[in-house]
Amino acid sequence: MGSEKPIILDGGLSNALEDRGHDLSDALWSARLLRDAPAEIAAVHRAYFEAGAMVATTASYQASVPGFAQAGVPVAEAERLIASSVRIAQEVRDEFGGERLVAASVGPYGAFLADGSEYRGRYGVSASALRDFHGPRLELLIGAGPDLLAVETIPDVDEAEVLVQLLQELDFPAWLSYSAADGRTRAGQPLAEAFALGGIDQVVAVGINCCAPEEVAADVALAATVRPAVAYPNSGEIWDADARGWTGSSETLTDLAPGWAAAGAKYIGGCCRVGPSGIRALAAALSDA
């Protein structure tokens, strides 16, 4: 990377919203607030920018027309809400100016299932079913005009193959980020195989998120052989999908992040349980490195 400084991403949206008093226990998760409290989503984007983030990741991770339909939201309104996730982030970004970016979050099919499947993959559905799910939401998000897509927390090479094909067809920039453990996707495929899918023109970075901090260094070095790497791990706590809660202790990312940058990470931030204070500390550590 030479002397180039990494681009600071934001942290977790859901934990920041929960810290503001919101209950996100239903199947729509943070996407519910696109309908019920959009100003709160804007407030979290603002807090991350104030902390030093250069990218706002939209509240669309769990947003899909089928997901909203299950919550009784009509199709036209669901489509409006998904697009609004980009607009909310753009309006806050415009308050700050400069070279800040809006990345439209594209979560995995498993997030729609709301049963922890994004930590397992292998959903038992066909590639055509995954395409029918992802295609319309990608088009809605792209139509709202983000700077790029954050295709994130993908647990499975099979799902990534569908998404990469859609990115090529839609010809829109994105980063491609997997949930991973022990050098493999959550579904068990080697990360070398997974990262290789990012070698298309539309993918600007490939890497991992929603993982343990100690996973990052080796995975970033592997990802950087394909594309500039993206890395935004969890705080160090572990999500228990059965108990629907976090266990373990939080680990600071500030000591580890300079090593990720040296290994080839161009985009660095935090995922679950990393809030604005964590991003402020991360930005300071990378600035000093």
TrEMBL record:
Zn(2+) binds at C210, C271, C272. Keywords: Metal-binding, Methyltransferase, Transferase, Zinc. Signal peptide: none annotated. It comes from the Bacteria. Residues 1-286 form the Hcy-binding domain. The keyword Oxidoreductase does not apply. Its cofactor is Zn(2+). It holds the Pfam family S-methyl_trans. PANTHER family: HOMOCYSTEINE S-METHYLTRANSFERASE-LIKE ISOFORM 1 (PTHR46015:SF1), ZGC:172121 (PTHR46015). This is Homocysteine S-methyltransferase. It comes from Kribbella yunnanensis. The lineage of its organism: Bacteria, Bacillati, Actinomycetota, Actinomycetes, Propionibacteriales.
